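User: Show me an example of a complex going from sequences to structure tokens.

Assistant: Sure. Here are the input components:
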Amino acid sequence: MTSKRKSTALTEAQCVSLAQKILRERLCQQRLPEQPVGLESQYRHLLELLKRTAVHGESNSVLIVGPRGAGKTMLLGCVLRELMNLKEVLKNVLQVELNGLLQTDDKIALKEITRQLHLENVVGDKVFGSFAENLAFLLEALKSGDKSRSRPVLFILDEFDLFAHHKNQTLLYNLLDVSQSAQAPVAVVGLTCRLDVLELLEKRVKSRFSHRQIHLLNPLSFTQYVEAVGSQLSLPQDFPHPKFCDEWNRSVTKLCEDKSVEELLRRQFNSSKDFRSLYMLLFLAVIRVSPSHSTLRESDLLEASRLISADSKANILHGLSVLELCLIIAMKHLNDTYDGEPFNFQMVHNEFTKFIQRKSHTIHKFEKPVVMKAFEHLVELEMVRAVDSATGKVQREYQLMRLMLEHGQVMEALQKYPQCPTDVKQWALSAFA
Amino acid sequence: MSRYITRLRVRRTYRLNGAPVGEDRKLKRLYHESMTISLDGRTDNATVYLGQFILIEGDDDDNPFVAQLLKLYYDDSGKKKTALVQWFVRMCEIPHNKRKLLGRDSHPQEIFYYHDRSCDNEVDAETILSAVQIEFVSPEAPFPEGKSKDVLFVKLLWDTKAFRALSSEIMQPPLSPKSPPPPSRRPPARVLPTPDLTVMKRATMSGALIRGSMSTGKLISEAESLHSASKLSAAKALSARRRSRATSGPHVRKKLDLYKILDEPKGTGKTLTSKLNTSPTGRISISIRLTPLTEPFSPAKQENDGESNEFFGLQPLEEPPLSTGRTPRKREATPRRASLRGQTAEEDNEDSPVLTAPTPRSKRKSAQLVSSRIRKQLNLLGNKDDLQSDGEDGDDDDDCFVPTKIDLQSSSDEEVEAKMDSEDELVVKRRRGSRTPRSTEKTHTSARTPRKTPSKKNAPATPRTPRTPRHATPSIPSRSAPARKPGNVLEEARARLHVSSVPESLPCREQEFQDIYNFVESKVIDGTGGCMYISGVPGTGKTATVHEVIRSLQQASEQDEIPQFRFIEINGMKMTDPHQAYVQILQKLTDQKATPDHAAALLEKRFSAPAPKKETTVLLVDELDLLWTRKQNVMYNLFDWPTRRNARLVVLTIANTMDLPERIMINRVASRLGLTRMSFQPYTFKQLQQIITSRLNRVKAFEEDALQLVSRKVAALSGDARRCLDICRRATEICEHSAGLQKGSGLVAMSHVMETLDEMFSSSYITAIRCASLQEQLFLRAVIAEFRRLGLEEATFQQVFVQHQALCRVEGLQPASVSEGLAVCQRLGSCRLLLLEGSRLDLLLRIRLNVSQDDVLYALKAD
């Protein structure tokens, strides 16, 4: 994009877009970080393990367990990057990557393994033979290998728990069996976010698993979290425009010390410690930077946070008509009165007409079909949901419904609703207003 | 199933000729010197004489057993024709593990003189198919080139242990092709071990066909003495006869070993044809099989050398096809063929009315397909005459062609030869057309492969599955740099502790080992069958013990303490469907591929038919419970086969649960499984300790206490030896790592083991809860609060959320929105701390805890 020669002549706009590009790449996790944060011991464990497979030909199996966004794939990616940098390993290791969401049964998985291993029954990109043949072929292939001669195979099973749902767990049994017998050296690495994954394994499969689990549960403290934010947002030293870079980094440091930003980050931290949701927040903030204000400001972060933490249903409520809002309030009152029991349209209409009678001067009197139409719109928006799906028998007015909104959501929406009639607001606060 | 029709298709009638030439008074036997085999619907007969080499029907119709006819007589009941034979074995009948002993690749037409005194050499004479031609080649001499595929070569003797040179006393080149086996003994010609000049000359000249059917007196006498040494006792003979009578078809088997080396196409013309056979074309195989029979007796033999020369001049065509494409070869063939046409055309035309005459048997579609294909191929020759006559040939093949016409004295020998030639060539053509040569590595030739006529026996070589690339050898590429060897004590220990490393001995399973050993050994020695059921929780050494037993039995059989046996292993987990068990067993037994149904039928046939030379098969069925089907027919068959009289099958089954037979098997299955059961108890801590110690084998890597801790812990939990070894392995890693940090003894100590146990056994839930974000922790708390309020173990998200918000306020946090709350809830659900319904339900989503409430509270309180 820019060459060294032009670097001095970089305009502000170019700097901004370049900085955004770098940060976007980082925040969208397209590039592996230099070093995984806070996962040193796990990193070492996994690296040692895979190195032993690659170098000594020792078979192994391991599970990497951690909640979503904890950095399982990132950790494995970093380990593999380092492993492949070893000259001894690079040409000696075969890799097979499977994903439980893609390889939904053993048949597909087997084909994929065979394809990735380039076994001899693969022509071009096609794998030939029936399921049984493929299985027999793969097993024969693995059996023909031995510890010292064959190239080790790394099996990476993403969403490992889904493989446990395959019929008889044939694939897992066989992979783990190979890892426990004198055949071609393999390392089976499973990634999963389920803590109870071992309970999913059949007893024979479980017995063959080595029970090595690497847990990625980040015990980050808030200060570490803020530091991570700072480091993620700051630009690298080799940024072509040093002045811009300094300015940017200074603004980021200042940002992290800001009280409101800290509060915002703490809120985010309290809600979820994983980096993926943090990156989402920072990403939204970064894209708001423009040449007109070339540094990251707290308002950007606040806006991003507002976007992220916005309640989806409250947002929908802002777009409703007053009549629909009135119906929602009526339903809320019904819920209060009957303690969450389901209601039907007739009851809602009654409640609504009572309100109209009291406040006839402020609210236009609607015909019943109009109210019905509004009610149906709410059903369509799934603000209201029928209790059971057997809709055919009962007349629509008497079908039992439930409100899918929380009390708080209604009140919040009313507060923010533009030009909401005061009577309606009062009615919402008290059933007898 | 076309290959199994040889007997059914053509009914042969057997008749012993002439007056008895000898009599054994003791056994009350009358010996005859020849037998006539006549085929139904044909007027002409074939005759086999004593001393002639014959083909005997076996399991494998491509490779019938070869033997030399020694005696022919009616048994004492006076009804059953019995033949005494000297067996020859093909390479494919020799056990796999012994084939290496040959030290070279065997010639496709090579057979071995079979010397095994234990082998039953009395067969039902009605299983004799035809005569065959055998040539004796001296061990040093190369195999003669350019011989007909029908000729078999004998070079060595196989005595079930080793290949030995065949001494001239035993085997002698047959001399006079014509003379019927004389009762008078001829003086033995001095031939071997030095390569016999005459033989060599004949072999290399290739023009002179040595008719192997003739035998000399010397040969007979030798064989006879051999026989008398191993003569069956009368009782045994009786029982053998009874056995063969009990079976419907008098199948004779020399050996169960059907193994077929794929890389080694059996070179007889018959083989070639039958490989392509569909049911109708199966007749071809007969026609060709029988041709040699006629040759020795053709009166004009001697003067026909000229013709046979020409005939054999074509033989190179029949060499195993090369990787070159079909067409050039065919062109090459054309001129020669054309030169022969002059002779053949007439004859063919003469014959054609007879041969093409409609037979009662309806031509099957596939037969028509085949013949049309042949015609098409022959079209390539561009010779109209050829087309016509070959078309007739094709028809003639489809017609139940019988060699009898050759025996008709009216047809001149010349015609016979020519006829044979065209047939042979036809065979070659067919073979080229429908069977890709095995040597073609990657070329996908033979587009015209008849899909409907798969020769299942050699599936990998033939285009049975034309879609799969042929010769895909299952293998993992080998590494460019060699694997590093363990460097220090801990690495060495780790390598030894890996489950995969095969220990020198299996400690702590001596009793079980002995029991299984005795069971299998007795069955192998007795030649009977039986089942055994072995149960035990995972990791108690069931499979390892059985393997150990087999290993020592194999050693014993190598040292000749017990008879030979085959070991086959299948695993319920390693197949996609219970019925694949048949396929796998069949493939491991005979290297054939078949569909499950077909495989079941073949196995059924194999295990129910009698066979004198059959060796015992030991079948290990691992993970038996997975072979369960609704009708349980797989299990039923597995347990039923051993009960057959001739099966000689020992089935060892392994599963985890002790009461599996009672739980999942229906009565008739459970009853067949029998009561030979064995249960592997989980290892006790002492045993585990012993296992580790024996594996480590004086590699000092563990402190005594540490070992004890591991074994006690595992014994208390499961008694799974795998677990135990894994823990030890991990402990060495931790030790190695910590040794790098601080100075230790270098041995794995208690602390390391404790750390490992913590890592492996401690529940991760509590850590996970502690590491969860504040909102997540609050949500869990809200769930418990709601459960307490409701008095139930289940609540909807809406209810919990209300609690959650209240808790947020108590904690002084800004209450989360519903969306956020739902996100928190989903995150907990994905870790399975909570069990959730589908998120479609939104607020009404029901929540349950996957951890005990106490655990949650404990984790949160300690925070």
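The lines above are the inputs; the final block is the predicted structure for all two components together. The CA atoms of residues 100 and 162 of chain A lie 5 Å apart.
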